[in-house]
Amino acid sequence: MTEALSFPPEWFARQDESPDPDFFAEARLVVHIDDATIEAARSYFTTALPNEGVFLDLMSSWRSHLPHNLQGHVVGLGMNEVELAENPQLQERIIHDLNANPALPLPDAWFDAVFVTVSIQYMTRPLEIFTTVCRILKPGAQFHILFSDRMFPTKAVAIWRSLPSAKERTELIATYFALSGNWEQPEFFDRSPGHGADPLYVVRASKKE
Fold this sequence. Notes:
Elements: H1 20-23, H2 35-48, E1 54-60, E2 73-78, H3 81-85, E3 92-95, E4 111-117, H4 126-136, E5 137-147, H5 158-162, H6 166-180, E6 187-190, E7 201-206
Parallel strand pairs: 1-2, 1-4, 2-3, 4-5
Antiparallel strand pairs: 5-7, 6-7
Helix pairs in contact: 4-6
């Protein structure tokens, strides 16, 4: 399935249409949410992920914000070799331009969970990506989308920038699930720590058995 079947192509235009590998060639060893929100993400993963298994950190960087005692094999797929090499929670690292090629070089029904942390706004071909994620997940396993309100605005897609609220962005992600494959009904969570910290929202869905 392609976005052309469901969405106007201009929804996924970006202010900077230069090749993503050029934009992400420089290693950015910085976090994109504040400390309290990082801990909120870690707390979410503590209860949401299986205790052990094979996990995919999609659009990964130098930090995954996973529980420190997480057991299992974590694969990081991202754009920058230096950033992935600096991530101590990854056991395997894959350099891959997801927007150029959503067909991931990964086996069917392999992962116990897949997650994207504060990067959903950069997907230019979300339906194809979500369909691929559904293929590589085990039946019953979940795809977790965590998002906040920070972004590189020139690389975020137009539809994401145009939506004024977390509720509307949540509904957009739910639409990605609805149009992309064999998913159960999505679930929604507000895990924002408050007290002036960055917000944190979660949309997740399970692959149907």
